[in-house]
Design brief:
Radius of gyration: 27 Å
Strand order of the largest sheet: 2-4-3-1-5-6-7
CATH architecture of the largest domain: 3-Layer(aba) Sandwich
Shape: elongated
CATH class of the largest domain: Alpha Beta
Number of domains: 2
Helix content: 40-55%
Structural class: alpha+beta
Strand content: 5-15%
Number of helices: 12
Length: 294
């Protein structure tokens, strides 16, 4: 027994050697990690993300074909591999060009030095109240408006079609932007992290045939952007003054102030505790409204 253990140790374990790690190896790992991180961030913000998910599905089918030795499918995949690589480059050419341009303009090290003290990725309660106030103020005056809230999917492509503003969200500024006969009133406003980033932006129109024929271009644009991104759009009708929300390809028409506030709370992405408090406050406000009606 003891001799067998000794032979096993001599034959296998003595051959195991811990590799020596040099300083250059650590630097190389860090460089590769940074490159992969920025690559994944870039993929997440472009059409490459949807393409990547499609590629993963195709690879899953090819793995099944390899397990069951489906030679015809594997041969077709092998022959199409070079064509697929060229097709990916052609499809993602605009995104790749923008990525290289931004890489030349961006100071990479600044992202490590600058910290965001605020809450990133969601909108504050103050912003919600300013939007509700501006929307119904414009609705009373029959001023058309289109306000798009960015969430996880980047709206950078649509943002570039307008005029850069980069200002804090306020009801007075939004009302002034959409005022009739002003240079910025036409088109949509893109909102990101409590900031108005761009105005007079062009949005894709929805092809949904279930939408009412009475809806104009403003409503179809709001639904259109919600179909291709996870954004939420607030729409104020110029004809009726009604306030609507487009989200997830659906149009919620003729909202009250309370209804608009509830829809806008979807874009806040609050932690669980804050969400519970928000739900309880909504229930409380509803009960108070019902009491006042009685």
């Amino acid at each position: 027994m003891g001799e067998g253990v000794s032979e096993f140790i001599d034959e296998y374990l003595t051959a195991i050697r811990m590799p020596s790690i040099r300083v250059t190896d650590v630097i190389e790992i860090l460089i590769i990690s940074v490159i992969l991180y920025y690559l994944m961030v870039w993929i997440r913000k472009t059409r490459a993300w949807s393409l990547l998910k499609g590629v993963i599905v195709v690879l899953g089918f090819l793995l099944i074909a390899a397990i069951f030795n489906m030679t015809t499918i594997l041969w077709i995949a092998k022959e199409c591999l070079s064509i697929a690589a060229v097709a990916v480059v052609v499809v993602l050419q605009p995104e790749m060009r923008r990525a290289l341009e931004s890489l030349g303009k961006k100071n990479i090290f600044s992202s490590f030095l600058i910290s965001d003290n605020g809450v990133s990725g969601r909108y504050s309660d103050k912003t919600i109240e300013e939007i509700v106030k501006a929307s119904f103020s414009m609705g009373r005056e029959k001023t058309g408006a289109l306000m798009v809230f960015e969430r996880n999917d980047s709206l950078e492509d649509y943002e570039k079609t307008g005029i850069a503003i980069d200002a804090a969200i306020s009801s007075q500024l939004l009302i002034n932007i959409f005022e009739h006969n002003t240079p910025l009133h036409d088109g949509a406003v893109v909102l990101r992290k409590d900031r108005i980033v761009s105005a007079t932006c062009y949005l894709p129109l929805s092809d949904n045939r279930d939408l009412s024929k009475a809806l104009g271009t403003r409503h179809r644009a709001g639904v259109g952007i919600s179909e291709v991104t996870d954004s939420l759009t607030v729409i104020v009708s110029e004809e009726s003054g009604k306030v609507s929300v487009a989200y997830g390809g659906e149009l919620f028409n003729g909202l009250t102030q309370e209804g608009l506030r509830e829809k806008l709370e979807l874009i806040q992405d609050k932690p669980v505790e804050e969400t519970k408090r928000s739900i309880s406050s909504i229930i409380k406000r509803k009960s108070e409204t019902e009491k006042n009606k009685q």
